[in-house]
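quick q for whoever's on today - can somebody do inverse folding on this one?? i tried earlier but teh output was garbage lol. tokens:
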């Protein structure tokens, strides 16, 4: 289990220059966990 930082999770849902790198990381180890309320701050 990996606790993922928002600097890694946000580019998966908001396009940034790091989006492709973050997708590759997630593909290597998809067992990521994040706080339940994180999306409230980043998603409409």
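ok took a stab at it. sequence:
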């Amino acid at each position: 289990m990996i606790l993922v930082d928002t600097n890694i999770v946000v580019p998966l849902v908001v396009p940034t220059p790091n989006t492709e790198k973050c997708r590759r990381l997630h593909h290597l180890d998809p067992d990521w966990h994040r706080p339940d309320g994180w999306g409230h701050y980043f998603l409409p």
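fwiw The two ends are 28 Å apart (CA to CA). also The helical segments are 6-13, 19-28, 38-42. so keep that in mind when u check it
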